Amino acid sequence: MAAAATAADLRKPQTLSRPIAEKASVMSQRIDKSWIVFISIENLEHDRCVDFFSRENGSHGFEEFRRDVEDGGRWTPMQYYSGIAYLSPVDALEAAERCVHWLIDVLNRKPELRIRIGLG
């Protein structure tokens, strides 16, 4: 009989079909200073954003942030998406669209953002 998943197991990001192995922890709290954010997309309320970035090794990723009054208006990571590496910015975008519920609405309103992400 297989052991039941723990709460910690359920919070860990699942490996997608095309990730690149990374030395960084999948539990990173913020975007590493060596990574280059090439676009940041905010929701319509301006209290959530997704950063898309590239790493020195050529992989790409994304992270979702929130900005709340109790945090002093600072952007705070919400998930652990940045711990997963993708082969291309398009792969990262496809994953972000599955994970971040409000992102598709913003991208539909501003289709030029998809092009900018694809150019990474």
What keywords describe this structure?
single chain, alpha+beta, four-stranded antiparallel β-sheet, 4 helices, disordered N terminus
Could you please describe the fold and organization of this structure?
By secondary structure, this protein is α+β, with helices and mostly antiparallel strands. The protein has one domain (17-119). Helices cover 26% and strands 21% of the residues. It contains four helices and four strands. The longest helix is centred in the C-terminal third of the chain and has 11 residues, at 89-99. The chain is globular, with a radius of gyration of 15 Å.
Q: Any idea what the radius of gyration is?
A: 15 Å
Figure out the total of helices. Answer: 4
Report the count of strand segments.
4
What separation lies between the terminal Cα atoms?
45 Å
Which structural class should the secondary elements be placed in? alpha+beta
Largest sheet: 4 strands, antiparallel
Question: Helical proportion?
Answer: 25-40%
How many discrete structural domains?
1
Helix-strand string: HEEEEHHH
Summarize the structure.
The protein is an alpha+beta fold and 120 residues long. The chain is built from 4 helices and 4 strands. The longest helix has 11 residues, at 89-99.
Question: How are the elements arranged and paired?
Answer:
Elements lengths: L6 H5 L24 E7 L5 E7 L5 E8 L7 E3 L11 H11 L3 H7 L2 H8 L1
Antiparallel strand pairs: 1-2, 2-3, 3-4
